[in-house]
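Troubleshooting log. The previous structure file for this entry was overwritten by mistake, so regenerating from the original sequence record. Sequence copied from the archived sheet and checked twice against the printout by T.R.
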Amino acid sequence: MQDIIDRLEMLRVGARLGGGQARIDAQHARGKLTARERLEALMDPGSFEEMDLFVEHNCTDFGMADNHIAGDGVVTGVGTIYGRRVFAFSQDFTVFGGSLSESNARKICKIMDMAIKVGAPVVGLNDSGGARIQEGVASLAGYAEVFQRNVLASGVVPQISAIMGPCAGGAVYSPALTDFIMMVKDTSYMFLTGPEVVKTVTHEDVSAEQLGGAITHSTRSGVADFAYENDLVLLKQLRRLLAFLPSSNREPAPRIDTGDDPKRTIFSLDNLVPNDPQRPYDMKELVEKVVDNGDFLEIQAGYAKNIIIGLARLNGQSVGIVANQPMVLAGCLDIASSVKAARFVRFCDCFNIPIITFVDVPGFLPGMQQELGGIIKHGAKLLFAYAEATVPKVTVITRKAYGGAYDVMSSKHLRGDLNYAWPNAEIAVMGPKGAAEIIFRNEIKASPNHEAKLKEVTAAYAANFANPFIAARKGFIDDVIMPHDTRWRVIRGLQTLEGKQLSLPWKKHDNLPL
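Regenerated output below.
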């Protein structure tokens, strides 16, 4: 028996070496951790239990019959993060470049099936050369099997993809189907066709970093939600992200004791909004002051900066934050910001996370580029997301809420549960000056001093209509609140809405305006 035990341990040691020490050293030389080192850093100490350690490929072509390595290029299993169960797979670049084989895909599908059954998140640590060419269509079939699981798991359990090396061709579609994508600067990239193919076909000379690096995808394409300096920082932040999320759609958003007084008043907010309506201010300051201990995990911070999205806690409860950012494009909604916020709102709704919306929006960004880019349909995505969301929705209008953008930003008319406004808020079809120019055009023309008359009627319009009290009289605003009370009023609103239930007409699924 001891011989069998010794042989088993020897096999385990060999399997855990992956492609061997030389390839492990090469991985380290690139500034990257190995597949198993990443899982050790991600999971609670000693909690990870590996599955399918001895699985090998079944390919016999191109000399592969004599080239077997236990595990076949991916490490799969289950562990815990902050004591909660998480399934994970980590591609091993030291074994066949982490390429995906039929056996490799079966390992990944197995843990994804388990995660769906038991209701636990799935984390994928991607570091792969793509489909294993020697296996041909079998490896492509393996990718499609993984894609199918991604779709089935969507909205059922959180799925997070960490891109920690190359991710090219069909391999990019599994991460694209997950809820969040994290990348490492300088060592990870994603693209459908690499720099060589691009140069051959379009004659563009680009590097892998320019084409699909972490900075490119987190600031220009919007494909990645986060970009970090190295593997360890990414894995630490991945743990932080999961701490905000429920394990599945069958559970409420997690709640912890943060020690922050829910009734804490914030008098500095009374002076946050400038008297000049044209002057910007930083909405992120408001968010960080209102949430528990200033702990705000911003998502897609470098992309579509005119809107802010992220996760935080209020009185210990996880919440999703959506906020216009007056510092960028005056907080206007455009194509990129509408899609960015819409996807986040739908994610929060999938996983029972209440949505808090801070509004300062002068409208949709005008211009030929936006119209030809489809701002009508893309803006409708955000409208659709808010309208279909059934989680508690609390909205605070801090300054401007003009035109259709007022409607879209979680208004009472899209089943907003509690809608508040600060005393200086302006809720109108358009700004006072533009409205006055239309309504009082005849009086302005007839006046000997057009400019003085315009100033006079603009001030009159602003006093009578550009304030929150008209909307409050109609019941569209539930209360006009003092800025310094914002934290407590939002928390109290969430307490009021606890246990909210909303029935919807039966449907197979909706038809989002894609």
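Residues 432-465 form one domain. Archived copy saved in two places this time.
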